[in-house]
Each structure stands twice: as structure tokens, then as C-alpha cells.
Write a structure and sequence with these properties.
CATH superfamily of the largest domain: Response regulator
Shape: elongated
CATH class of the largest domain: Alpha Beta
Strand order of the largest sheet: 7-6-8-9-10-13-14
CATH topology of the largest domain: Rossmann fold
Largest sheet: 7 strands, mixed
Number of strands: 14
Radius of gyration: 20 Å
Number of domains: 2
Distance between the termini: 22 Å
Number of helices: 13
Helix content: 40-55%
Length: about 375
């Protein structure tokens, strides 16, 4: 499965070369900003694949409103400063809509650029609650649930299913990781059945995390909840296991990625992570999966189905609006249902998709499976 994912990433990197140039007046310019290189590319490249597949589907039947869809990727490596540059490039490309960014911090940094230009942005993966709940970004939508729900689920699973009483909560200090961790900590401390015995931030990209592992050990914790991404999670888990600290490790959708398993190896076994709700029973899920396998001869990566759903939602909104006018697209997103791999959805008044949620997964025999 990992080998296949690598192939998919390589293909997506090639797709990233398409669509560069001056927009034509008769085109729908579909911007796809996200992490296309760097440590978190495994999150962003599947989004390009999803955009390409949906664009091809529409273009094969004449496009949207008689206009062909042009996919224009922009790489931000999940870094806020690069995200702003990516957004500015898409504005200069006269993007009609954008699907991205991938990471919450990068999304937050870029949104004002799109807002000033009246461009609708939809993320398949940015879960930080204030992106919708603050009211600061009326042009933002997402096809994934928020971290308040994700943190609550992680906490309740750790307490109720794993029986933990003393929980160490650690995070990567970022908008996403720390935000998730704060919600998880609040849920733990408010449960009446467990308490948080450590709340500690780590520096992303560090070579060694033995110091925080020692703090976890000294805290007497019987479980860890981690908020952040797979590069740090893999190092922390490896350090814990090598120090014979075998307590459960529970994390978020930033860790539910095959790359985590590839890097952590045997130490990944038994790790839990929340992730987008399983919708594999949805007929459109099967359609999207088959399309990806046919086009790329590979399994799709993280957030592919949320991205495919976002692409369908954006194109459907333009079609139903009968226009690329910003206000009409926003209205259509909030009033018109669309069938997608994550379900039949529309968006609420603040831009969150209705009906989506999270499940808990576990690494078993080298793959993530739904936890019982």
C-alpha cells in the first residue's frame, strides 16, 4: 500500500505542472493550493489528484456553464508565509475558486488574500474551528469536521475505550495541533473520569524528542494524546517505545496517513488516530476510488475523498448558481445539496459541511483500520 501511495504522489507531482499560464476568459480556473512538496506533501498531493479527476469528469461533458475547467496547483508546503504567496499567485491567475489549503495555519494566513479578491476557498482538511466559527472568513468552507469534535472524540475514546485515567496531552504548538490538544485536554478534564497530567508543546522538525518522552514518563500518564502531524508523531512514538513506554498513543487526522506508518515502522503498530468518518459504503466513494486507481494505478492518499467531495461541491455550486459570481456561489453552497463520496452535503451558515464527522482508527498489521 505504501509503495502504491508513493506512485500516486509521483503522478500527482507531474500533474502539478499542468495549468500554468495566463487564464483564458472562457475557462473556470480551479486553484489547488497546498503542500505539494516537503514533509507534508502526502496530505496535499492527493488533493491535486482529486481536482484533476473531477475536472476531467466535467470537461468530458463540456465543462461547467460551457467553460472548461483548468486546474492550477500552487505549493505552500503547509507554511503560512508560502501560503500567502500561493494565494497571491492564484489571484493573479484569476482563479474562479480554490480548493485548499491543507493545513490550518497555512489556510488562516492565506484566507485574507482570497477574501479581498472575493474568491471562495474550500479545504478538505483544515479543521481549526475559528476558520469558520470566528466569522472572519465568510469565503471559507470545508468538507471535514472541526477540531472541537475531533478533540472530544479522541478524549472520550481514550477514557472510555482504553480505560485511561491520567492522560498526557502534547502538541506541536501550531494552530491545528495545539488547537486539537486544547479541545482534547478540556474534554479529558471535564469528563469526571480522567485528568490531564501534562500539557506540553514540542518544536516541529526537532531531531530528538526524548525530553518530552521523559516528561510523559515522569507524569505517570497511562495514555498520550498528541495534536500535530505525522513527522513529529512518528519520532515521539519511536522514542516512547524505545524507552519501553508502551502506553497508548492517540492522535488526530494529521497522523492518520500511510506516511506515518512508513516512517514509524513497527513502532506504529497499535497507534490510534482520529480521521474523517468512514464513508466507504457510499456508492460515490467507490466511484472515486475506482477512478483514482484507473488514472494513477495507486491507492489514494490522505483526505482524497474529502478533496474529491470539495471539488464536486464547488463545481456544483457554480453550475447551480449559473454564474461565477462570488455571492451566487456562496448562496448555492449553503442552499444546494450535492452528492459526494462523504455523503449528500450542503454547508451551514458559517461554512461547515453538514453531516460529516470523525471516526477512530488503529494501526494493525501496517495499515489503518477502524477501531472497535
Amino acid at each position: 500500500m505504501i509503495k502504491k501511495l508513493t506512485s500516486a504522489v509521483a503522478v500527482a507531482a507531474g500533474i502539478g505542472l499542468i495549468g500554468i499560464g495566463v487564464a483564458q476568459a472562457d475557462e473556470i480556473v480551479f486553484g489547488v493550493p497546498g503542500a505539494h512538496t516537503g514533509d507534508l506533501a502526502s496530505y496535499g498531493l492527493p488533493t491535486i489528484n482529486a481536482a484533476k479527476l473531477v475536472a476531467d469528469k466535467y470537461n468530458a461533458k463540456g465543462g461547467v456553464l460551457g467553460r472548461m475547467i483548468k486546474v492550477v496547483p500552487q505549493d505552500d508546503q503547509c507554511k503560512p508565509e508560502l501560503a500567502v504567496n500561493a494565494a497571491m499567485k492564484l489571484v493573479s491567475e484569476e482563479a474562479t475558486v480554490a480548493m485548499g489549503h491543507i493545513c490550518s495555519g497555512a489556510t488562516k494566513a492565506a484566507l485574507p488574500v482570497y477574501g479581498d479578491s472575493k474568491i471562495v476557498v474550500m479545504s478538505p482538511s483544515a479543521t481549526n474551528p475559528p476558520l469558520t466559527t470566528s466569522g472572519d472568513y465568510p469565503n471559507f468552507f470545508r468538507t471535514i469536521a472541526r477540531d472541537d469534535a475531533q478533540g472530544q472524540l479522541a478524549a472520550s475514546f481514550t477514557i472510555e475505550k482504553l480505560g485511561a485515567k491520567k492522560i498526557a496531552v502534547i502538541h506541536d504548538k501550531g494552530d491545528y495541533g495545539k488547537g486539537f490538544a486544547e479541545f482534547a485536554k478540556a474534554a479529558v478534564d471535564g469528563s469526571g473520569a480522567a485528568t490531564s497530567v501534562l500539557f506540553e508543546g514540542v518544536t516541529p522538525g526537532a531531531v530528538d524528542y526524548s525530553a518530552v518522552v521523559q516528561k510523559v514518563k515522569h507524569s505517570g500518564a497511562d495514555a498520550v494524546i498528541f495534536g500535530g502531524y505525522h513527522p513529529e508523531a512518528s519520532k515521539i512514538v519511536m522514542a516512547m517505545r524505545k524507552k519501553n513506554l508502551k502506553i497508548p498513543f492517540v492522535s488526530d487526522d494529521g497522523v492518520k496517513d500511510p506516511t506515518f506508518i512508513k516512517v514509524a515502522g513497527v513502532f506504529a503498530e497499535g497507534v490510534f488516530a482520529t480521521g474523517p468518518q468512514d464513508s466507504s459504503g457510499n456508492p460515490l466513494y467507490a466511484v472515486a476510488l475506482a477512478e483514482h486507481k484507473k488514472a494513477f494505478n495507486a491507492e489514494p492518499g490522505a483526505f482524497f475523498f474529502n478533496a474529491y467531495s470539495a471539488a464536486l461541491a464547488l463545481m456544483n455550486a457554480i453550475e447551480k448558481a449559473g454564474s461565477t459570481d462570488y455571492d451566487k456561489i456562496v448562496k448555492a453552497l449553503k442552499t444546494e445539496y450535492v452528492e459526494t463520496p462523504v455523503g449528500k452535503i450542503k454547508f451551514d451558515s458559517i461554512g461547515d459541511a453538514e453531516g460529516v464527522g470523525f471516526d477512530v482508527y488503529m494501526v494493525a498489521n501496517g495499515v489503518f483500520v477502524q477501531a472497535e
